[in-house]
Write a structure and sequence with these properties.
Number of domains: 3
Shape: globular
Radius of gyration: 24 Å
CATH class of the largest domain: Alpha Beta
CATH architecture of the largest domain: 3-Layer(aba) Sandwich
Number of strands: 14
Length: about 425
Amino acid sequence: MIPVTNILKCYQKIRSVVDHTPLEYNRVLSERYQCSIYLKREDLQRVRSYKSRGAYNKMLSLTTAEKSNGVVCASAGNHAQGFAFSCSKLGINGKVFMPVPTPKQKINQVNLFGGTYTEIELIGDTFDDAYAAAIEYCIQKKLTFIHPFDDIKVVEGQATVGFEILEDSEVTIDYLFIPVGGGGLSAGVGSYFKQVSPTTKIIGIEPEGAPAMYNSLKAKEVVKLNTIDKFVDGAAVKKVGDITFNIAKEVIDEMALVHEGKVCSTILELYNQQAIVVEPAGALTIAVLDQFADKIKGKNIVCIVSGGNNDILRTEEIKERSMLYEGLKHYFLVRFPQRAGALREFVNEILGPNDSISRFEYTKRNNRETGPAVVGIELQKKEDLENLIKNFESHNFSYQLINENPDLFNLLV
């Protein structure tokens, strides 16, 4: 566990560069869950995430020679921005290794914050690929690696989020929800809370598709995942840090997983209802609240909104994942009778009055009775699926619901 004195010293060192972000009471969420919910708005940080705290604190600790030689980092996006920001502020040259699928918005922000002090190399499909390349480069060039989470100085920096929460809170906090990727934020904030506010229950949140900390704590050792869903890019790692895991064992009371589709629904809801722009990882702590609705009723809750670096180009994917999760969009493989009027019959007799076709791909087969089509259908209510299925069967349309078949869904959709 990180000592409180270290965290307080760190805060004094970085406070002139890193913003003290607001702890905001959220009326909409509080009324919905019948409790008092406060959002720690790290999405309002200058680099739109908490990552500048740890990166800056780590770089401050380097020797003159290490600063002169230059530094390297690997990141899926947010750490790279904090790293670039710190390089520019301290006048240190840095190189950033990022996975190829990193959203363009995050890449552009790294260039913006780093200016002439940083350069980017895109490599591999995941953070772990970029990490391996960055470590090899550091060894070859004898440079200092700035780890995104598994470093005591980085964890100290992230811990200052916890200091600010308790500094600003006027109530006793019953539950603290923290997003977990590599574990740096949870290890740091958890350390501070366990020593200063030990009655607060700390809940770590991961996406279902990347349960690295969840599995590790369950196994009581660091577990490396074979595959992950990279959608929640700020919290999708195959392996948590050794340092962060050892601290997490002491400070996290419970881990919870959230479906990526629920994360997407939360992103859209926050934007449409409250004009809050969050990235997938930043939505985790709010998306999980349904799972704790009974426990948190009447309590004081803090959700850390870890970042707001969301690329607008991902909006369609976010909407799609949300609708699939909510049961409002379904894909079918339909075998259409190859006769005149079959499509008209499908539209008039199969679809309900509020159903709409969002996708239609048809392949005519010569000398066959039927031709296959991939049909995407959007529903107004998820309950409408039952009537849609009944219409398929009563009109003898051969179909397969491919939402329920991951291999076929990924192949066709």
